[in-house]
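User: Look at the shape:
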Amino acid sequence: MDSILAGFVRALRAAGAEASPAEAIDAARTVALLGYADRANLKSALGVVLAKSEEDKQIHDRLFDLYFSAPAAAPQAGADRGQVAGRTPGRTGDTAVDALIALATPQAGGQASDALRSALARAAAQAGVDDIRFATQAPYLTSQTLAALGIAPLEARIAQRMAEPGSAADAEVHRLTQARDALRQHARALVQQRFELFGKPATEAFMTEVAVNRPIGRMAPAEMERMKAAVARMARKLAQQHARRQKVVLHGRLDLRRSMRANAGHDDVPFKLVWKQRRRDRPRIVAVCDVSGSVATHVRFLLLFLYALHDSVGDLRSFAFSSRLKDVTAPLEHLPFDDAMALILKEVGSGATDYGQAWQDLHDRHWDAIDRRTTVIVLGDGRSNGADPRLDLFAELAGRAKRVVWLSPEPPGRWGTGDSALLRYRPLCTRLSHAASAQDLERALDEALAAYH
């Protein structure tokens, strides 16, 4: 794969597109057939082989136009006043300086020459511009690009002529300064383009990594949109991982009946062997969520995870409670997520938290939602305002379910303090863990889904 295409694939991956190795190989074959001359056809063809989803297609189209377009050209100030674009400028007698002035001279229409674009691309590669991560690196990388371009003789010539008297020296200084400024602007534009391609996605990925590891309770409102997008990506990744494991081949165990049927046309000579397979149960999940004020934000992200996983979860039921428990599956399935959460908090979020009453409501109205294939995920702090925690009902629930996973937004040091009944619930849980961040929620859901493999 040539460096141009490799850079484009890298930019796609940095922006969040999948662009698998197999797809990159297909892209290399496409470029070998079409070349780079016809950009419209190339864009369409690469969009087919590199973008497999609508989101990836949008990323591809945006980055193609940015990656394969020249950076914004410097103004035509690179030429002397009155000079016709494209005309050879006056010479200084210094070969290196004259070469730089020639590079800085714009073509008709003020466009940078192919020679300048090629020279800047080589200099930027030498300076490591594609490794840019933050906007604050741009000035340094611009100066490094200019240094790799060989601007030092031009700078020295300007300093030398500035020290000399006379109108001829002044005129040359003016012309050299314009050439230097034009080169700087072209280099700055190139660095900015590479930042848009490689740096901005890296910055966004860094900020997202910080956000998904930040305790949800301390998240700033401005981080919510970033978190929603991050959770959706994390959920898609989980879904892909677990979808590949649904069917398991039992190696070494021959399915004799199916093998004979498959080879009936070969006089039962076993050209094709069929191995026994076992299809795993698709996950069946019941989420029981405390939506009282101290836990509501954590619930939002757990349910966002679960409903982004709906294709991988065969059966998903969601219940919310503070004092009384309610089935909230329907609004989550049929309303926009934020509207559904607002409705749930309005209808269920008020009232004193009562875990015992929640288990009683679940038992009386929805007990059939739980069977031996069900993983029950409880999200809450276990604080029930001194009410009876109904350990008897919770024990019956644990006996009916495949697994019971309890996620607490409070750290272990607070379990069992005050009105917390978590330490009393813990022996009945398959797993009780602290889930303070989106990363913790992802890890817990990964383990819950893995139990079905």
Summary: The longest helix spans residues 167-213. The longest strand covers residues 247-254. The mean pLDDT is 84. The CA atoms of residues 18 and 52 lie 8 Å apart.
